[in-house]
């Protein structure tokens, strides 16, 4: 587990364990940079699980919660896919 707000640590872990799966919390509500995190954590196709649960969970407090959460989750999925193809 390496937090998304610590890109240099993610890079260091990747250097020492290039194929180890990483869990990376801290995107969204915690302020981590999605693009920088993906570049560091998923370098060369390495496995990484980017956690954005808080940003999705609190996307709405209204009756539209389910739709808002689904929309936010879909956006993250599409954005991650786009960034990984760059």
Most strands sheet: 2 strands, parallel
User: Roughly what percent helix?
Assistant: 40-55%
Radius of gyration: 14 Å
Give the overall shape: elongated
Whole-Å distance between the termini? 25 Å
Account of the 3D structure:
The structure is a single chain. The chain has helices spanning 7-16, 34-41, 53-57, 65-85; strands spanning 22-24, 48-50. It is elongated. Helix 1 (7-16) packs parallel to helix 2 (34-41). Helices cover 51% and strands 7% of the residues. By secondary structure, the protein is mainly alpha-helical. It has a two-stranded parallel ribbon with strand order 1-2.
Topology, element by element:
Layout: H1 7-16, E1 22-24, H2 34-41, E2 48-50, H3 53-57, H4 65-85
Parallel strand pairs: 1-2
Name a few traits of the molecule:
86 residues, mainly alpha, two-stranded parallel sheet, 2 strands, 7% strand
């Amino acid at each position: 587990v390496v937090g998304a707000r610590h890109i240099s640590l993610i890079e260091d872990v990747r250097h020492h364990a290039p194929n180890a799966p990483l869990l990376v919390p801290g995107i969204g509500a915690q302020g981590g940079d999605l693009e920088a995190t993906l570049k560091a954590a998923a370098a060369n196709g390495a496995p990484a699980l980017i956690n954005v649960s808080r940003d999705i969970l609190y996307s709405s407090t209204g009756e539209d919660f389910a739709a808002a959460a689904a929309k936010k989750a879909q956006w993250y999925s599409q954005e991650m896919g786009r960034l990984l193809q760059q």
